[in-house]
From TrEMBL, chains A, B, C, D:
Protein name: Transglutaminase family protein
UniProt cross-references to Gene3D superfamilies, sorted A to Z: 2.60.40.2250, 3.10.620.30
Residues covered by the Transglutaminase-like domain: 159-219
Entry-linked InterPro entries: Papain-like_cys_pep_sf, Transglutaminase-like
Record-linked Pfam families: Transglut_core (PF01841)
Source organism of this protein record: Pontiella agarivorans
Transmembrane stretches, start-end: none
Amino acid sequence: MWLHASAHLEFQIPVPTPLLLMLRPRSGGQQWIAREAYVLSPSVPAIEFTDWFGNLCQRLVAPAGYFSIHTSVDVETAEACDAAPGAPFIEVQQLPDETLPYLYPSRYCESDRFSEMAASITAGSLCGYDQCSAIVDYIRNTVQYTPGMGQQIISATEVNQAGHGVCRDMAHLGIACCRALSIPARFVVGYLEGLQPMDLHAWFEAYISNRWYTFDATQSNLQGGRIAIAFGRDAADVAIYTQFGDPIDLLSMDIRVGRMTGPAN
Amino acid sequence: MWLHASAHLEFQIPVPTPLLLMLRPRSGGQQWIAREAYVLSPSVPAIEFTDWFGNLCQRLVAPAGYFSIHTSVDVETAEACDAAPGAPFIEVQQLPDETLPYLYPSRYCESDRFSEMAASITAGSLCGYDQCSAIVDYIRNTVQYTPGMGQQIISATEVNQAGHGVCRDMAHLGIACCRALSIPARFVVGYLEGLQPMDLHAWFEAYISNRWYTFDATQSNLQGGRIAIAFGRDAADVAIYTQFGDPIDLLSMDIRVGRMTGPAN
Amino acid sequence: MWLHASAHLEFQIPVPTPLLLMLRPRSGGQQWIAREAYVLSPSVPAIEFTDWFGNLCQRLVAPAGYFSIHTSVDVETAEACDAAPGAPFIEVQQLPDETLPYLYPSRYCESDRFSEMAASITAGSLCGYDQCSAIVDYIRNTVQYTPGMGQQIISATEVNQAGHGVCRDMAHLGIACCRALSIPARFVVGYLEGLQPMDLHAWFEAYISNRWYTFDATQSNLQGGRIAIAFGRDAADVAIYTQFGDPIDLLSMDIRVGRMTGPAN
Amino acid sequence: MWLHASAHLEFQIPVPTPLLLMLRPRSGGQQWIAREAYVLSPSVPAIEFTDWFGNLCQRLVAPAGYFSIHTSVDVETAEACDAAPGAPFIEVQQLPDETLPYLYPSRYCESDRFSEMAASITAGSLCGYDQCSAIVDYIRNTVQYTPGMGQQIISATEVNQAGHGVCRDMAHLGIACCRALSIPARFVVGYLEGLQPMDLHAWFEAYISNRWYTFDATQSNLQGGRIAIAFGRDAADVAIYTQFGDPIDLLSMDIRVGRMTGPAN
């Protein structure tokens, strides 16, 4: 299916401020970017680099005053996410090197504290995909989903105690449990078609059998229509924008996702 | 200055054929991509990866029949290329690690055979930028520039013997001479505004003082308005498309570059 | 100065267990490895890879029963660590790309919670090296140093509350404060000559001016004689060994560091 | 099997000279380095980095006068190289990204000129391993092997015309033919137990089925006892030492390889 998605951010900036942006989805196995716009107003010099996770990041200094960032993409992505009930766990010694960093605890996923809980949740599940399904079910049943993205970020431990959270929090808890079982898990920020209310979304992927699979604890039926914008160990690695120095004002953030028949030629 | 550039390639393909493409300019210190399109007709799955040189490469299997690739970019790039007469040579022990591969001989730049010639051409020049300028002057004076890109690729040694060549050949000769003097030099394929007749262009960059500088032996006055598409050690690393298996027919390749006032918001 | 250092680890292993090791110091700007041993008993196949941080990591499956790892190095390292009072802070937009990951919060360094504390500690200090010095002084004065490495790892927030900690904990707190000031800071595990009692040691480095500088909150006078074994964002990235699956018994860990006149020829 | 191998190089150096060294074998799937020495006399600062091919490279400035480099390793390596007659060719679209650079022509392997010859040599062979075997047989039957490594490097085209060559030349010819068939092939420099006369050796690897296999056109029966020191596209990427500036005198190079029962504990 073809989607058109856009993010429009407007800022009021008191003093020139370094920004680091992750707003450029990449073409990968799951999605193909046919058209893309990335417009800065006013136009300022920006430099792009690739981070450890493979994200294309942009660095710039936002000038004082009104500043806006407009990005949009035409993307072909899957109508439905692959699922693989029964897909087997990979022994750590067989995992590709590049998946290993996703086994360790990280800022918001204190997997070192979830061994018992993860074992308990997945008792009786086949090792691998079914463990992840059990984790997602558990989260959906015990953590109340409260849509939105803008709040202070809390960690898996804190989400578990709070009993409610946004998509990001539920992803953190899922990741922490997977890693506690030696299943590599990573955090994804992206667009999701049909999200209500429309906003950026977060979910996670787990490495099972021989590839990454999508999991989303905010949904009882895993929906397709996803566009991954950036990957990381958790939200500490993946902010669509990071600012340094004195605070800046985000006046508005407008996210849109719609179906299209295909890219214009 | 803002440029709109596009490449439109049309193929007739006898049997499904793996293609490797380098047609996606990246935002870097010298250019900022504000809009981009990359449309495959018919639409087929494609995967993108980053090669050793930092190029974004796309892999796909082109289906049998008519197949077209249309890419376009809106880019902000410099009106004039930086020049730095007198900029000093960097001792090899001071060069950044990542420039070292550009010191070695490569397929079409047999720098191991150009030590004497390079020393002779640059006799009396200050080490560094002025050596590169002397090399470019020498090439422009001894190799007749014959526009076009489609011919069989020949090496620096062969260009030097032939006494004429396309932009790519002149770049190879320049690179071979620079490397023979321990100056890192790399090959660039890109767009050049105002090129007559319009086509893709090739030039080279040399690492002097603490950055890469642009050199172009096809011009007496170095022009700006460049959009780098891909970098490599020579043309063996940088083909806008590489096909594997039985030959395919390139029906047409249409390259356009024009000025624009700025990206639409 | 030349040092001979060794780590000897003995395990009792109930079932074959995947291990990931970081026990191989690399030759870098600060140290040169002239001799090295890395002996596994019994000898088992091992594979080496380089992680994101540049560490050489070894993967193997330890067999059931008694298993030992013996590593040793002859290293030339600096008698004294470089200090640079007054060295200036680098604006974020000037930082090299590869230092940026060391600005973000991580598992044990919740820098997002230390902005006020770091600002308060460094009030009146010149931005840059002197801020780091003030942070180290603060930690040494408020956190009681309790040698040892084996305990449960606690985070910077927890160290700050506890008021005492091991070298690793003090490094985590220092890193969290530096990052809160937009100074990249990374965690180092290594050998330190003369440490009492002898053990592995941990400290941190901060990126100031145009390089990494060493800081160690366990010492009033920064001592040289250091051999870095591995780098990371915090202890979650850098464990000299990580085991997966059922617990294994570390029977003994013997660390030795001594001066030598130079490597045998 | 366990081998002890050493390389001892002695130089007379007129003026301080930058050197780039590749003399440090790495632990990988095929070999495990248990002990290693790397001694410079006189001792000078050296910095190590990892190149595109994964080789650990050392940079230093050799001082004027007598200068020696002594490296040695205790290595566990395979008694016999794996062979896989019948192992299938991998379609280009299935090849891992990191093997693609080994498909292109390079300085000494002008694979773009070997399509017809490679097709002719391998006519009737199963695609994949058997094609490589046919290439190796052809080379052994048509190119006379003349041991030694010190001569001027010639390219695959030149080797093919000359009809005789050293191990390096035969590897270049093999690589050129493999790449002409879209089989990734890379150049290896290393130690070989039992080589007569003892010297460094060169061979090549081809990517077939799902891994790299060893080929050596200097031997009718592929022998084990190999220690890979460095990998590259051809000899232009892999010199055990590269010097920049005025020539230096290599007074002697002493290579030794012997069996041992195992590493001392």
